[in-house]
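Form P-L/3: holo structure prediction, ligand nicotinamide-adenine-dinucleotide.
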Amino acid sequence: MTAFVHTTHAQRVFFGTGDGPRHLGAEVERLGAERIMLIAADQETSLAAEVIATVPVTRRWNDVAPHVPIATAQAATAAARNDAIDLMISVGGGSTTGLAKAIALETGIPIVAVPTTYAGSEATNVWGLTENSRKTTGVNDVVLPVSIVYDARLTASLPVELSVVSGLNALAHCIDSMWAPRTDPIDKALAGEGIAVLARALPEIRNDAGQTLAGREDALYGAYLSAVTFASAGSGLHHKICHVLGGAYNLPHAHTHAIVLAYVTAFLAPFAQDAERRIASAFDATDALTGLNDLRAAVGAPTALRDHGFDGSVISEAAHLILPSVPPGTPRPVTADDLEVLLRAAWAGDPPTKEMFRS
Ligand code: NAD
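OUTPUT (holo model):
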Protein backbone atom coordinates (compact mmCIF):
# COMPACT_ATOMS: atom_id res chain seq x y z
CA MET A 1 0.00 0.00 0.00
CA THR A 2 1.15 3.53 -0.71
CA ALA A 3 1.40 5.69 2.44
CA PHE A 4 0.69 9.41 2.11
CA VAL A 5 -0.95 12.42 3.75
CA HIS A 6 -3.28 14.53 1.61
CA THR A 7 -4.82 17.88 2.58
CA THR A 8 -8.10 18.87 0.96
CA HIS A 9 -8.91 22.58 1.18
CA ALA A 10 -12.52 23.45 1.97
CA GLN A 11 -14.21 25.63 -0.64
CA ARG A 12 -17.70 25.91 -2.04
CA VAL A 13 -17.46 25.72 -5.82
CA PHE A 14 -20.24 26.70 -8.21
CA PHE A 15 -20.28 25.76 -11.89
CA GLY A 16 -22.99 26.93 -14.25
CA THR A 17 -22.94 28.82 -17.52
CA GLY A 18 -25.13 31.90 -17.16
CA ASP A 19 -25.74 31.08 -13.49
CA GLY A 20 -22.96 33.32 -12.12
CA PRO A 21 -25.20 36.21 -10.94
CA ARG A 22 -27.63 33.84 -9.19
CA HIS A 23 -24.87 31.79 -7.57
CA LEU A 24 -23.03 34.90 -6.43
CA GLY A 25 -26.19 36.44 -4.96
CA ALA A 26 -26.98 33.25 -3.05
CA GLU A 27 -23.45 32.99 -1.74
CA VAL A 28 -23.36 36.60 -0.51
CA GLU A 29 -26.62 35.96 1.33
CA ARG A 30 -25.38 32.70 2.84
CA LEU A 31 -22.23 34.42 4.09
CA GLY A 32 -24.29 37.30 5.56
CA ALA A 33 -21.98 39.90 4.01
CA GLU A 34 -23.07 43.52 4.33
CA ARG A 35 -20.07 45.58 3.17
CA ILE A 36 -18.70 44.23 -0.07
CA MET A 37 -15.61 45.29 -1.98
CA LEU A 38 -15.71 44.45 -5.69
CA ILE A 39 -12.24 43.98 -7.16
CA ALA A 40 -12.18 44.05 -10.96
CA ALA A 41 -9.71 45.66 -13.36
CA ASP A 42 -10.93 48.44 -15.64
CA GLN A 43 -10.95 46.01 -18.58
CA GLU A 44 -13.25 43.62 -16.68
CA THR A 45 -15.72 46.27 -15.46
CA SER A 46 -18.53 45.20 -17.76
CA LEU A 47 -18.01 41.50 -16.93
CA ALA A 48 -18.14 42.40 -13.25
CA ALA A 49 -21.30 44.47 -13.74
CA GLU A 50 -22.93 41.45 -15.37
CA VAL A 51 -22.20 39.06 -12.54
CA ILE A 52 -22.65 41.45 -9.62
CA ALA A 53 -26.06 42.69 -10.80
CA THR A 54 -28.03 41.74 -7.67
CA VAL A 55 -25.30 42.34 -5.09
CA PRO A 56 -24.99 45.67 -3.23
CA VAL A 57 -21.39 46.95 -3.43
CA THR A 58 -19.85 49.29 -0.83
CA ARG A 59 -16.53 49.86 -2.58
CA ARG A 60 -15.27 49.23 -6.13
CA TRP A 61 -11.54 48.72 -6.68
CA ASN A 62 -10.18 48.68 -10.24
CA ASP A 63 -6.45 49.36 -9.86
CA VAL A 64 -5.18 45.87 -10.73
CA ALA A 65 -1.70 45.14 -12.11
CA PRO A 66 0.15 41.92 -13.00
CA HIS A 67 2.03 40.17 -10.19
CA VAL A 68 0.41 42.29 -7.43
CA PRO A 69 2.75 45.27 -6.86
CA ILE A 70 3.05 45.85 -3.13
CA ALA A 71 2.01 49.52 -3.38
CA THR A 72 -1.27 48.50 -5.04
CA ALA A 73 -1.86 45.86 -2.37
CA GLN A 74 -1.22 48.35 0.42
CA ALA A 75 -3.55 50.96 -1.05
CA ALA A 76 -6.32 48.41 -1.60
CA THR A 77 -5.85 47.01 1.92
CA ALA A 78 -6.16 50.49 3.41
CA ALA A 79 -9.35 51.08 1.42
CA ALA A 80 -10.83 47.78 2.62
CA ARG A 81 -10.03 48.61 6.23
CA ASN A 82 -11.30 52.15 5.90
CA ASP A 83 -14.66 50.95 4.57
CA ALA A 84 -14.97 48.10 7.12
CA ILE A 85 -15.33 45.62 4.27
CA ASP A 86 -16.57 42.17 5.35
CA LEU A 87 -16.39 40.35 1.98
CA MET A 88 -14.34 40.76 -1.20
CA ILE A 89 -15.61 39.64 -4.59
CA SER A 90 -12.87 39.38 -7.20
CA VAL A 91 -13.86 39.22 -10.88
CA GLY A 92 -10.96 38.65 -13.25
CA GLY A 93 -7.85 36.62 -13.96
CA GLY A 94 -5.02 35.56 -11.70
CA SER A 95 -3.82 39.15 -11.19
CA THR A 96 -7.20 40.21 -9.79
CA THR A 97 -7.57 37.15 -7.58
CA GLY A 98 -3.98 37.79 -6.48
CA LEU A 99 -4.81 41.32 -5.30
CA ALA A 100 -7.76 40.04 -3.27
CA LYS A 101 -5.45 37.45 -1.71
CA ALA A 102 -2.92 40.14 -0.77
CA ILE A 103 -5.67 42.07 1.05
CA ALA A 104 -6.87 38.88 2.77
CA LEU A 105 -3.33 38.17 3.92
CA GLU A 106 -3.32 41.43 5.92
CA THR A 107 -6.96 41.62 6.98
CA GLY A 108 -8.43 38.11 6.97
CA ILE A 109 -11.40 39.39 4.91
CA PRO A 110 -12.93 36.41 3.04
CA ILE A 111 -12.96 36.24 -0.76
CA VAL A 112 -15.51 34.97 -3.22
CA ALA A 113 -13.59 34.52 -6.49
CA VAL A 114 -15.19 34.80 -9.92
CA PRO A 115 -12.46 33.72 -12.37
CA THR A 116 -12.42 34.91 -15.97
CA THR A 117 -9.25 33.07 -17.11
CA TYR A 118 -7.87 29.57 -16.49
CA ALA A 119 -4.96 30.61 -14.21
CA GLY A 120 -6.45 28.75 -11.23
CA SER A 121 -5.33 31.07 -8.42
CA GLU A 122 -8.87 30.90 -6.99
CA ALA A 123 -8.37 27.32 -5.76
CA THR A 124 -4.98 27.68 -4.08
CA ASN A 125 -3.79 29.04 -0.74
CA VAL A 126 -0.73 30.57 -2.47
CA TRP A 127 -0.26 34.35 -2.48
CA GLY A 128 2.28 36.46 -4.40
CA LEU A 129 3.52 40.05 -4.06
CA THR A 130 6.06 42.03 -6.08
CA GLU A 131 8.40 44.64 -4.61
CA ASN A 132 11.37 46.17 -6.45
CA SER A 133 10.94 43.67 -9.32
CA ARG A 134 11.19 40.70 -6.93
CA LYS A 135 8.20 38.44 -6.55
CA THR A 136 7.68 36.80 -3.18
CA THR A 137 5.20 33.97 -2.79
CA GLY A 138 3.92 32.21 0.28
CA VAL A 139 1.26 29.85 1.52
CA ASN A 140 -1.44 30.85 3.98
CA ASP A 141 -4.93 29.37 4.30
CA VAL A 142 -6.38 32.82 4.99
CA VAL A 143 -5.97 33.74 1.30
CA LEU A 144 -7.90 30.72 0.00
CA PRO A 145 -11.21 32.04 -1.37
CA VAL A 146 -14.18 30.68 0.61
CA SER A 147 -16.14 30.20 -2.58
CA ILE A 148 -15.61 30.14 -6.34
CA VAL A 149 -18.25 31.03 -8.88
CA TYR A 150 -17.40 29.65 -12.33
CA ASP A 151 -19.51 30.90 -15.23
CA ALA A 152 -18.16 30.21 -18.72
CA ARG A 153 -20.12 33.18 -20.10
CA LEU A 154 -17.59 35.41 -18.35
CA THR A 155 -14.76 33.84 -20.36
CA ALA A 156 -16.44 34.38 -23.74
CA SER A 157 -14.59 37.68 -24.20
CA LEU A 158 -11.16 36.15 -23.52
CA PRO A 159 -9.48 36.14 -26.96
CA VAL A 160 -8.70 32.69 -28.38
CA GLU A 161 -4.91 33.25 -28.20
CA LEU A 162 -5.11 34.21 -24.54
CA SER A 163 -7.52 31.35 -23.81
CA VAL A 164 -5.05 28.88 -25.30
CA VAL A 165 -2.05 30.09 -23.30
CA SER A 166 -4.11 30.40 -20.13
CA GLY A 167 -5.40 26.85 -20.66
CA LEU A 168 -1.82 25.65 -21.18
CA ASN A 169 -0.96 27.35 -17.88
CA ALA A 170 -3.63 25.15 -16.26
CA LEU A 171 -2.24 22.12 -18.09
CA ALA A 172 1.17 22.96 -16.64
CA HIS A 173 -0.27 22.78 -13.10
CA CYS A 174 -1.54 19.27 -13.91
CA ILE A 175 1.60 17.94 -15.58
CA ASP A 176 4.02 19.44 -13.05
CA SER A 177 1.89 17.99 -10.22
CA MET A 178 2.79 14.52 -11.45
CA TRP A 179 6.35 14.94 -10.14
CA ALA A 180 5.99 17.80 -7.63
CA PRO A 181 7.43 17.37 -4.12
CA ARG A 182 4.19 16.59 -2.23
CA THR A 183 2.38 14.75 -5.00
CA ASP A 184 0.22 11.79 -4.02
CA PRO A 185 -2.19 9.43 -5.78
CA ILE A 186 -5.15 11.79 -5.20
CA ASP A 187 -3.27 14.68 -6.84
CA LYS A 188 -2.27 12.44 -9.73
CA ALA A 189 -5.85 11.27 -10.26
CA LEU A 190 -7.11 14.89 -10.33
CA ALA A 191 -4.22 15.93 -12.58
CA GLY A 192 -4.94 13.08 -15.00
CA GLU A 193 -8.59 14.15 -15.28
CA GLY A 194 -7.45 17.78 -15.67
CA ILE A 195 -5.10 16.88 -18.55
CA ALA A 196 -7.79 14.89 -20.34
CA VAL A 197 -10.36 17.68 -19.95
CA LEU A 198 -7.98 20.45 -21.06
CA ALA A 199 -6.69 18.39 -24.00
CA ARG A 200 -10.28 18.20 -25.21
CA ALA A 201 -11.25 21.77 -24.32
CA LEU A 202 -8.44 23.80 -25.86
CA PRO A 203 -8.83 22.56 -29.46
CA GLU A 204 -12.57 23.17 -29.08
CA ILE A 205 -11.90 26.77 -28.07
CA ARG A 206 -9.43 27.17 -30.94
CA ASN A 207 -11.83 25.76 -33.55
CA ASP A 208 -15.07 27.09 -32.16
CA ALA A 209 -14.43 30.79 -32.92
CA GLY A 210 -16.88 31.83 -30.23
CA GLN A 211 -19.86 29.87 -31.54
CA THR A 212 -20.51 27.90 -28.35
CA LEU A 213 -19.15 27.85 -24.82
CA ALA A 214 -18.64 24.09 -24.51
CA GLY A 215 -14.83 24.25 -24.72
CA ARG A 216 -14.69 27.18 -22.31
CA GLU A 217 -16.91 25.33 -19.79
CA ASP A 218 -14.59 22.35 -19.90
CA ALA A 219 -11.53 24.58 -19.62
CA LEU A 220 -12.88 26.13 -16.39
CA TYR A 221 -13.45 22.65 -14.95
CA GLY A 222 -9.92 21.67 -16.02
CA ALA A 223 -8.53 24.87 -14.51
CA TYR A 224 -10.18 24.10 -11.19
CA LEU A 225 -8.82 20.54 -11.14
CA SER A 226 -5.38 21.83 -12.09
CA ALA A 227 -5.32 24.33 -9.24
CA VAL A 228 -6.52 21.85 -6.62
CA THR A 229 -3.81 19.39 -7.55
CA PHE A 230 -1.16 22.14 -7.74
CA ALA A 231 -2.15 23.47 -4.29
CA SER A 232 -1.70 20.02 -2.82
CA ALA A 233 1.32 18.76 -4.76
CA GLY A 234 3.36 21.99 -4.66
CA SER A 235 5.70 23.44 -7.26
CA GLY A 236 7.63 21.01 -9.41
CA LEU A 237 10.62 21.88 -11.59
CA HIS A 238 8.44 23.53 -14.23
CA HIS A 239 6.94 26.03 -11.78
CA LYS A 240 10.34 26.81 -10.28
CA ILE A 241 11.71 27.62 -13.74
CA CYS A 242 8.71 29.81 -14.65
CA HIS A 243 8.84 31.57 -11.28
CA VAL A 244 12.46 32.63 -11.89
CA LEU A 245 11.77 33.65 -15.50
CA GLY A 246 8.69 35.67 -14.51
CA GLY A 247 10.26 37.28 -11.46
CA ALA A 248 13.78 38.05 -12.72
CA TYR A 249 13.00 38.85 -16.36
CA ASN A 250 9.36 39.94 -16.17
CA LEU A 251 8.19 37.43 -18.80
CA PRO A 252 4.42 37.06 -19.31
CA HIS A 253 3.06 34.44 -16.90
CA ALA A 254 0.81 32.27 -19.06
CA HIS A 255 3.01 32.41 -22.20
CA THR A 256 6.06 31.37 -20.20
CA HIS A 257 4.20 28.37 -18.80
CA ALA A 258 2.82 27.47 -22.21
CA ILE A 259 6.31 27.34 -23.75
CA VAL A 260 8.48 25.92 -20.94
CA LEU A 261 6.12 23.01 -20.19
CA ALA A 262 7.07 20.98 -23.26
CA TYR A 263 10.81 21.19 -22.50
CA VAL A 264 10.34 20.17 -18.86
CA THR A 265 8.16 17.28 -20.01
CA ALA A 266 10.83 16.20 -22.54
CA PHE A 267 13.43 16.38 -19.76
CA LEU A 268 11.55 14.64 -16.92
CA ALA A 269 8.89 12.31 -18.32
CA PRO A 270 11.32 9.60 -19.50
CA PHE A 271 12.61 9.42 -15.91
CA ALA A 272 9.20 9.32 -14.22
CA GLN A 273 7.52 6.08 -15.23
CA ASP A 274 4.24 6.51 -13.36
CA ALA A 275 3.87 10.14 -14.47
CA GLU A 276 4.76 9.22 -18.06
CA ARG A 277 2.10 6.50 -18.11
CA ARG A 278 -0.59 8.69 -16.54
CA ILE A 279 0.08 11.74 -18.76
CA ALA A 280 0.19 9.60 -21.93
CA SER A 281 -3.05 7.91 -20.94
CA ALA A 282 -4.75 11.26 -20.23
CA PHE A 283 -3.72 12.50 -23.69
CA ASP A 284 -4.57 9.12 -25.21
CA ALA A 285 -1.11 9.24 -26.81
CA THR A 286 1.84 6.86 -27.11
CA ASP A 287 3.87 8.91 -24.62
CA ALA A 288 3.56 12.11 -22.58
CA LEU A 289 5.65 14.32 -24.85
CA THR A 290 3.89 13.19 -28.04
CA GLY A 291 0.53 13.95 -26.45
CA LEU A 292 1.66 17.40 -25.37
CA ASN A 293 3.36 18.23 -28.68
CA ASP A 294 0.26 17.15 -30.62
CA LEU A 295 -1.93 19.37 -28.46
CA ARG A 296 0.44 22.34 -28.85
CA ALA A 297 0.33 21.92 -32.61
CA ALA A 298 -3.47 21.58 -32.64
CA VAL A 299 -4.01 24.79 -30.68
CA GLY A 300 -1.20 26.85 -32.22
CA ALA A 301 0.62 27.26 -28.92
CA PRO A 302 3.41 29.82 -28.64
CA THR A 303 6.76 28.15 -29.19
CA ALA A 304 9.70 30.45 -28.38
CA LEU A 305 10.52 32.54 -25.30
CA ARG A 306 12.51 34.94 -27.51
CA ASP A 307 9.17 36.06 -28.98
CA HIS A 308 7.98 37.01 -25.48
CA GLY A 309 10.78 39.16 -24.13
CA PHE A 310 13.40 36.61 -23.04
CA ASP A 311 16.90 37.78 -23.93
CA GLY A 312 19.21 34.92 -24.95
CA SER A 313 22.20 36.57 -23.27
CA VAL A 314 20.85 35.81 -19.78
CA ILE A 315 20.32 32.07 -20.28
CA SER A 316 23.37 31.03 -18.25
CA GLU A 317 22.50 33.47 -15.46
CA ALA A 318 18.91 32.20 -15.41
CA ALA A 319 20.08 28.58 -15.19
CA HIS A 320 22.17 29.44 -12.13
CA LEU A 321 19.25 31.30 -10.55
CA ILE A 322 16.97 28.29 -11.02
CA LEU A 323 19.40 25.61 -9.84
CA PRO A 324 19.11 26.21 -6.05
CA SER A 325 15.31 25.91 -6.23
CA VAL A 326 15.17 22.51 -7.99
CA PRO A 327 12.52 20.73 -5.88
CA PRO A 328 13.34 17.65 -3.84
CA GLY A 329 12.11 14.46 -5.46
CA THR A 330 12.58 15.74 -9.04
CA PRO A 331 12.79 12.46 -10.95
CA ARG A 332 16.26 13.02 -12.43
CA PRO A 333 19.35 14.91 -11.28
CA VAL A 334 19.39 18.48 -12.62
CA THR A 335 22.59 20.37 -13.45
CA ALA A 336 23.16 23.96 -14.57
CA ASP A 337 24.10 22.52 -17.98
CA ASP A 338 20.73 20.73 -18.23
CA LEU A 339 18.92 23.95 -17.40
CA GLU A 340 20.94 25.86 -19.98
CA VAL A 341 20.07 23.29 -22.66
CA LEU A 342 16.42 23.49 -21.65
CA LEU A 343 16.31 27.31 -21.59
CA ARG A 344 18.22 27.68 -24.85
CA ALA A 345 15.82 25.33 -26.62
CA ALA A 346 12.79 27.13 -25.10
CA TRP A 347 14.29 30.49 -26.06
CA ALA A 348 14.78 29.39 -29.67
CA GLY A 349 11.59 27.35 -29.90
CA ASP A 350 13.43 24.19 -31.00
CA PRO A 351 11.06 21.22 -31.28
CA PRO A 352 11.15 19.62 -27.80
CA THR A 353 12.57 16.09 -27.82
CA LYS A 354 13.96 13.90 -25.08
CA GLU A 355 17.14 13.44 -27.16
CA MET A 356 18.06 17.12 -26.69
CA PHE A 357 19.17 16.27 -23.13
CA ARG A 358 22.07 14.09 -22.00
CA SER A 359 20.90 10.52 -21.36
P1 NAD B 1 -4.19 38.26 -15.75
O1 NAD B 1 -5.09 38.17 -14.60
O2 NAD B 1 -3.12 39.30 -15.67
O3 NAD B 1 -5.07 38.49 -17.05
C1 NAD B 1 -4.44 38.55 -18.33
C2 NAD B 1 -5.18 39.55 -19.22
O4 NAD B 1 -6.45 39.04 -19.57
C3 NAD B 1 -5.43 40.89 -18.56
O5 NAD B 1 -5.18 41.91 -19.47
C4 NAD B 1 -6.92 40.84 -18.23
O6 NAD B 1 -7.50 42.13 -18.19
C5 NAD B 1 -7.45 40.00 -19.37
N1 NAD B 1 -8.69 39.28 -19.09
C6 NAD B 1 -8.96 38.52 -18.02
N2 NAD B 1 -10.17 37.94 -18.16
C7 NAD B 1 -10.66 38.35 -19.35
C8 NAD B 1 -11.85 38.06 -20.08
N3 NAD B 1 -12.76 37.21 -19.63
N4 NAD B 1 -12.02 38.68 -21.27
C9 NAD B 1 -11.07 39.51 -21.79
N5 NAD B 1 -9.91 39.79 -21.15
C10 NAD B 1 -9.71 39.21 -19.96
O7 NAD B 1 -3.44 36.89 -16.08
P2 NAD B 1 -3.68 35.39 -15.63
O8 NAD B 1 -2.89 34.55 -16.55
O9 NAD B 1 -5.13 35.07 -15.44
O10 NAD B 1 -3.03 35.34 -14.17
C11 NAD B 1 -1.64 35.45 -14.03
C12 NAD B 1 -1.30 35.84 -12.61
O11 NAD B 1 -1.88 34.93 -11.70
C13 NAD B 1 0.21 35.82 -12.35
O12 NAD B 1 0.56 36.91 -11.53
C14 NAD B 1 0.41 34.52 -11.60
O13 NAD B 1 1.53 34.53 -10.77
C15 NAD B 1 -0.90 34.42 -10.84
N6 NAD B 1 -1.24 33.03 -10.47
C16 NAD B 1 -1.27 32.73 -9.16
C17 NAD B 1 -1.59 31.44 -8.77
C18 NAD B 1 -1.67 31.12 -7.30
O14 NAD B 1 -1.95 30.01 -6.95
N7 NAD B 1 -1.42 32.08 -6.43
C19 NAD B 1 -1.90 30.46 -9.72
C20 NAD B 1 -1.87 30.81 -11.07
C21 NAD B 1 -1.55 32.12 -11.44
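COMMENT: Residues 41, 43-44, 47, 66-67, 92-96, 98, 116-117, 119-121, 124, 126, 128, 154-155, 157-158, 162, 166, 253-254 surround nicotinamide-adenine-dinucleotide (CB under 6 Å).
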